[in-house]
User: Which sequence fits this backbone?
């Protein structure tokens, strides 16, 4: 069980916000495979507060995907609060504040991970958002901006102040902003943080690629939950496997080719609801690269799938790689 304020999940994991990936199609598949909560990709608060943006179906939560969280990014507390309220009104069940993004353009605008350098501003944003909505409010952090003493002190101050204010949860990617995605994830620091701030719900993130490792991380770190990101791209089966392993059952075998084909097709049809077919094929390529890793001849499958330029060609390539080749 995982408590995020008044939102209670029956298993201790979720699908992370993944900009450019975690759209409705990916979120819906995650739910089908047993993820109890998913997120939108990060939205710029300035845009999310705009009624025109919220009328775009790609930004709206769908009736059949609750609970679903929205994540927002910004440096201005009033705009963040306005966006949070607009997203709650649009139907999102939880608001997550992004204080972790390491993208240089975001840092230059003093947003995302930059705010780990400014605990006061960060907490002001949290306070304004907290006042503006009734749903759970969580924060996404990294373990600091860099490895300096000052940065570590700022990190501890943020966790401590968030804990004093009974934040609904903190998700912490166990790397610094400066590290981006390189170097080891500091699970020891995450475990130490949980140990020190025991009453605060802390969710770990970083390099969670298979059910056994994820279950081990949860057990050793004693964190309340984990947030799965890259490990779920082109692999929604990770949730099924994790549910089994957490129940003490063996992880299911790799899905057979027929099942892979069915899921790839289902994911693609989900994307076609929001894109015209040729654009859908182009957008789906990054998922196909990941899906093809589960094929017995991954390079050959990837080449055939990526050669497709139209919806008809893609459906034929899926048929050829996954069905006719059996
Ligand atoms: C393509 C991509 C997009 C991401 N988008 C977001 C995002 O919108 N918001 C966020 O908080 N983190 C984002 N992340 C970070 C992940 O949520 C996660 O914290 C990080 O990838 C580490 O987890 P992993 O090693 O399991 O992927 C993104 C990561 C990737 C690779």
Assistant:
């Amino acid at each position: 069980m995982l408590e995020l304020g008044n939102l209670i999940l029956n298993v201790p994991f979720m699908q992370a916000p993944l900009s450019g990936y975690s759209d409705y199609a990916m979120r819906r598949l995650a739910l089908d495979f047993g993820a109890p909560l998913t997120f939108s990709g990060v939205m710029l608060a300035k845009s999310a507060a705009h009624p025109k943006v919220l009328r775009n179906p790609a930004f709206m939560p769908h009736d059949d995907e609750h609970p679903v969280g929205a994540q927002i990014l910004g440096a201005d507390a009033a705009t963040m609060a306005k966006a949070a309220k607009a997203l709650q009104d649009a139907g999102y069940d939880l608001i997550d504040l992004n204080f972790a993004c390491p993208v240089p353009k975001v840092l230059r605008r003093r947003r995302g991970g930059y705010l780990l350098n400014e605990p006061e501003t960060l907490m002001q944003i949290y306070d304004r958002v907290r006042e503006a909505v009734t749903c759970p409010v969580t924060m996404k952090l990294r373990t600091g901006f860099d490895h300096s003493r000052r940065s570590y002190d700022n990190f501890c101050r943020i966790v401590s102040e968030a804990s004093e204010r009974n934040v609904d949860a903190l998700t912490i990617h166990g790397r610094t902003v400066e590290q981006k995605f390189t170097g080891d994830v500091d699970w020891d620091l995450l475990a130490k943080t949980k140990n020190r701030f025991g009453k605060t719900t802390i969710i770990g993130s970083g390099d969670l690629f298979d059910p056994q490792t994820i279950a081990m991380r949860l057990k050793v770190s004693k964190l309340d939950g984990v947030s799965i990101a890259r490990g779920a791209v082109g692999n929604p089966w990770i949730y099924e496997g994790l549910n089994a392993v957490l129940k003490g059952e063996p992880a299911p075998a790799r899905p057979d080719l027929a099942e892979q084909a069915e899921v790839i097709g289902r994911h693609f049809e989900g994307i076609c609801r929001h894109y015209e077919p040729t654009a859908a094929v182009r957008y789906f390529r990054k998922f196909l690269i990941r899906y093809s890793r589960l094929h017995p001849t991954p390079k050959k499958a990837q080449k055939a799938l990526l050669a497709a330029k139209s919806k008809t060609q893609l459906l034929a390539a899926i048929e050829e790689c996954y069905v006719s080749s059996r």
Q: What stands out?
A: DSSP finds 14 helices and ten strands in the chain. The radius of gyration is 20 Å. Residues 257-324 form a domain with the Non-ribosomal Peptide Synthetase Peptidyl Carrier Protein; Chain A fold (CATH 1.10.1200). The chain has two domains: 2-246, 257-324.
